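sorry for the late reply, my laptop died twice this morning and i had to redo everyting from scratch. anyway the thing you sent over, i finally got around to it. pasting the sequence first so we're on the same page, its 429 residues, then the predicted structure underneath. double check i copied it right bc i was rushing
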Amino acid sequence: MNAKLFDTSLPRGVADYLPGRAARLSELEQQVLHVAAAWGFQQVLPPALEFEDVLAVGMGEGLRSRAFRFDDWQTGRLLAIPPDSTPQIARIVATRLKDQPLPHRISYAGRVLRHAELQSGRSREIMQAGVELIGLDSPEADAEMVAMSVEVMNAARLQGFKVDLGQVAFCQGVFEASGLVGEPLRAIQQAVALKDVSSVEMLLKRYPVSESSQRELLALPRLFGGCEVLEEAGQVVQNLRSRLALDNIKEVVAILNLHGVHDCLTVDLGETRGLDYHTGLTFEGFVPGIGDALFSGGRYDDLIGRYGFDAPATGFTCNLFSLMQALELQGEAQHEQRDLLIFNATDDRREALELSRELRQRGYAVARDIIKRDLEASLCYAAQSGIRAVLVIGDSSQAQGQYRLIQSAGRTEQNIAREQLWQQYLPRS
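ok and here's the structure:
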């Protein structure tokens, strides 16, 4: 069928990833999983479809409303494409792993789909890779998640990133102590989320609270910056829940110092993200020039219990596409490159196949130029396809066992014997 006769465009919010970017995304995914494995985490593979009512147990209303849903012809039940992996991990732990000893260290990677507002410009397809640590309720477990996320960023060679720490129990303590409920509370929370101190002041004139609560609420939008914010907060908050939360985040920061993680840390005690989901420490990773978080995580002790198995939990997930964009912005984009193209100048395939097989066994990416064309055309193909060099076999000007090795960039050339070839292409570890 002629493609010009019909629309071959993609739905808004999804994309094709061509060689180069596809390889980069795959590499970043593997880096997350490699770091996870080094910390003792094991990978699971959740399904791409779930029954909507089962998945909804682990989702807040905001996330549930963004799920793609459709009827299942086989069962008559509603199916959903998961908009996030964490509820799936919660279900797996509560139902499939409930008889195994805690803690569970689980890693995962895959694509999720979410509805996005038409004019938002956001992708509806999100590539995630992350970990969940289930069964440990301690500052050390929280610190482990932050330290792992930093290790992932370092493995990706990302520069200048910051990890923003929050503590939802700190915010919740301030809001609860105020005694505000309903619309007044929602208005205050929104103003705090926007760091709008003047709006908080105006709302407190309309909805009076105690003097101590007024000080706490007015301070909340200002409590962000370096780790010195923690000491400032200690001089302001009086309610017990916020003070316990403050002790928790201080302990996490102290443990992160032992991990060697300190220079990249910032604190935002007025962060209201996840008030209806998270139960303790939260964190997000950012880099200048990219608006979306590169990774996000935190404690969510109530989620797994929704599936009938009470267990504390914490974790984080990386947005691989945002991470790739950040690396491209910093000039760290890597294009997939293959090592060699074998150009066979004779009709006898045996030597070309033998060399190709041996080079692959040594860990090199080797393609054979099966198409019949001249050497110049093959050199142009190699350069345009990201192949580093062309190995010419069977050239009549060369003695038996002698080859020409031509670099695609610059066309530098050397005559090379088979023994020299093996010395130059030593086995990769």
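Residues 240-258 form the longest helix (19 residues).
thats about all i looked at so far, will dig more tmrw
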